[in-house]
Amino acid sequence: MENINYLKSTLPKKTESWVLDLNEILSSDSLHVGTPYEESVRLLLFKINQRVVKSGDLDKKTIGLAELAESLSLLVGEEKVRVYPMKSDVFSGDCIVVNDEMIGCAFIELGCSLSRRGLWIGGNKID
């Protein structure tokens, strides 16, 4: 809960769509926040660009990916940012904070996996 309150306090005052969507995620009862960590801008930008491609391939709803990629491209490659990983019943992603200010988020809609009971190989159930 402490991390959620901190993240809410770092939200930009702008009313961009990603900020409004993120506020809903941060208010979700199903939200679980992982352990925050530091990462270089260069590596994070690479990961975000991969998410953009994969989410497009899977036709999944995203929140903040394009905006975060734009914000990260303005920073120095080896600069460190603080990443707050989180997951709700609907979305999985990260919030990115620099100097106690959230610069963006990257969330992708869940639901691209399928589970079936039993052992399946090559689309066939093995009894």
Question: Largest sheet, if any?
Answer: 6 strands, antiparallel
Rough outline:
globular
Order of helices and strands: HHEEHEHEEEEE
Broad structural category: alpha+beta
The poorly predicted ranges are none
Provide an overview of this structure.
The protein is of the alpha+beta class and 127 residues long. The protein has one domain. It has 4 helices and 8 strands. Strands 1, 2, 3, 4, 5 and 6 form a 6-stranded antiparallel β-sheet that branches. Strands 7-8 form a two-stranded antiparallel sheet. The longest helix is centred in the middle third of the chain and has 18 residues. The N and C termini lie far apart (46 Å).
List key phrases describing it.
127 residues; 6-stranded antiparallel beta sheet; 31% strand; two-stranded antiparallel ribbon; alpha+beta
Short recap of the structure:
With 127 residues, the protein is α+β, with helices and mostly antiparallel strands. Helix content is 36%, strand content 31%.
